[in-house]
Amino acid sequence: MRNFFATLTVLCAIMISGAAVHAADLDAFTGQSGTLKIAGGTAHIPVMKDAAQAIMEMNSEIRITIAGGGSGVGIKQAGEGLIDIGNSGREATSQELETYGLTMIRWAIDGVSVVVNPKNSVQALSSVQLRDIFAGRLTNWQEVGGEDRPINLYTRDEASGTRNVFWTKAIGKEAIDTKANVVVSNGAMKTAVANDPYAIGYVSVGHIDETVAAVTLDGVTPSIATVKSGDYKVARGLFSLTKGEPQGLAKLFIDYLLSPSGQAIVAAKGFIPVK
């Protein structure tokens, strides 16, 4: 019994210590005030919202606004000084960095998964089949072992970082059929595929839930584990960018994303922490 209480005391001390460390991650916001504007990549939004909520609950003098728009929007608006932090699911090009004088910080790693409706019997494809589907050369699910039904393509606009990674790493920069339906975000893609039994699209691995089915590609099923191990190759970093070096609330926010608390949010939202 004495050993039991001794063990319990140690465990409680560890838990209290851990909680104190995580609470301390918000200490930098004490005494701060002002508005922080964030926009860009939509995959980032769940992490951004939770981080912003924690900060604003701790200090009501801080207001943080979060918008989507895609990676291209995040890079451009940060560079033009319209927002304080721009989010991107792709690395900014050397030209973008130089033109806008941007600083880029990676705080998570993410995979991009092909998804279909859960009712679809086709939940595994080869890279060749995937390229042919998105190029419009395969147009019926029967051609890849499914029902005799047309394949309904869904893609993202060219400003999307998710699209850029999918286009580059999943289909080898094959031209995507111009008849594909274009949706504006990871959330919109997931909703579209969930509501269309014959759809195929792609989302951030962190957005996968029971409403869509992740497609095994070349024998590897996309998941946090397979992205982390490197077995699943369709992966990317999640970045935040500022014009020049981060300053003020922007710096504090990015520091928080890289803190133990911030990285815990990253993991809880289905991404891979960088620390």
Automatic annotation (TrEMBL):
Segments passing through the bilayer: none
Top-level division of the source organism's lineage: Bacteria
Domain PBP per the UniProt entry, residue ranges: 32-260
UniProt KW keywords: Signal
Pfam families per the UniProt record, alphabetical: PBP_like_2 (PF12849)
UniProt keyword Zinc-finger present: no
InterPro entries tied to this protein: PBP_domain, Phosphate_ABC_transporter
Signal peptide region: 1-23
Stated name of the protein: Phosphate ABC transporter substrate-binding protein, PhoT family (TC 3.A.1.7.1)
